[in-house]
Each structure stands twice: as C-alpha cells, then as structure tokens.
Amino acid sequence: MLTCLCKILPLYSAIEMYLHKKPIPVEWKKPGYGWTKLNFDGSCKGPNGSWSSIGGLVRDHKAQFLLGYAESIGPANSTLAELAALRRGLELVVEHGLNQRVWVEGDAKTLVDILEKRREVRCLEVRRHISHINSVILPELENFVVSHIYREGNRAAHKFAQMGHHLDKPRIWRDVPPHEVLTIVHEDAQGKIVLRRRGLAK
C-alpha cells in the first residue's frame, strides 16, 4: 500500500501545483502617439477548417476605433486564416491612409514568430501571403512592429473574426464599431485586465 501511495502522491502534487498557478494578467495596450494599432484574428470551424473567417480592427493612440473588418474566407487552416486576417488588415490600413506607423498584434504566436524573426516556412500558400506582405504592403508603411498577445488581450479582433462566419460578403466598419464589440472596445480603452489561466493555448 505504501508503494502505491508513493506513486500517487507526486502526481497529486503536480496536479495541485498546476491548479494553483497564478493566472496571467493580460491587458490590451494603446499604441504611442502617431501610431495606429491593428489587432487581427482568424477563426476556423468544422473538420479541417472547412468554415474559416477573418476579422480585425484598427485603433489610434487614444484607443479610438478607426475601422474594423470581417469576412468569411472558405476552407483554410488556422495559420492561413490568421495570415489572411493580417494581410487584409494591412491592406485596409494602407487604403485608408493609416500607414505612417503601424503596430500589428495578434494571438497566433507561430505567425508572429515567422514575421518577427523572418523564419522560413514550407507551405507555399503561407509563403505567398508573406511574400506579398513583405514586398507590396510593408514598403508602404513608414514604420512597422509586430507583437504577440494572448487571446484575452485580443478579444475585439476575435469577436470580429467570429462575426465573419455569419457574413455573405466582406464587411468594413468605419469610425463606429458594431454593437457586438462596443463593450470590448470600451473595456480595452479603459485598460481592463483579463486574467488568463496558465496552460491555455494562444
């Protein structure tokens, strides 16, 4: 019986320690003066991402909403959906003349690492998107930084991406956000901290 307890106790202690880890405080941060911030997200549902959508929003240094977007993009894996969301967001930033200094933020750590550290990728579709961003869009920006944030700090973009699943055609909102994200945008502007349980993906 003692032998059995010795085997069980270390496992129990590990579980107890995991459950009692302190959550991580996550907060959306305003960009600096003269900067705009693009938060983006992709959403995949169904087997093999058979229903995918994208979304995101752009805010200024006062956290004021400038524009948002959402659309359904058909079949795509999570990386491609995130990348499509980023590409579309950057295209809109350029189209609307918001391209002086742009801070891009998303909750897809792998994609952020690819962009930030210029990592090589095997997927031809991913490489095509990244090549377009690097060669066509980024030269249009005066300054550009990219960072990762946990989903708890990317709630507004996540909501836009979820909304994309229900749209028949691409949708853009200017100056005034849709009511579905009003509360989140307001909470972000007020600096609300959302606690994240350790061990969660993204």
Characterize the structure shown.
- The chain is an alpha/beta fold and 202 residues long.
- It has one domain: Nucleotidyltransferase, domain 5, CATH 3.30.420.
- Helix content is 40%, strand content 26%.
- The chain has helices spanning 2-19, 78-95, 109-117, 124-137, 155-164, 179-189, and strands spanning 24-27, 36-45, 51-59, 65-74, 101-106, 143-148, 171-174, 193-196.
- A six-stranded mixed beta sheet has the order 6-5-2-3-4-7, with helices on both faces. Strands 1-8 form a two-stranded antiparallel ribbon.
- β3 (51-59) and β4 form a beta hairpin.
- It is globular.
- Mean pLDDT is 88; it is low at 1-9.
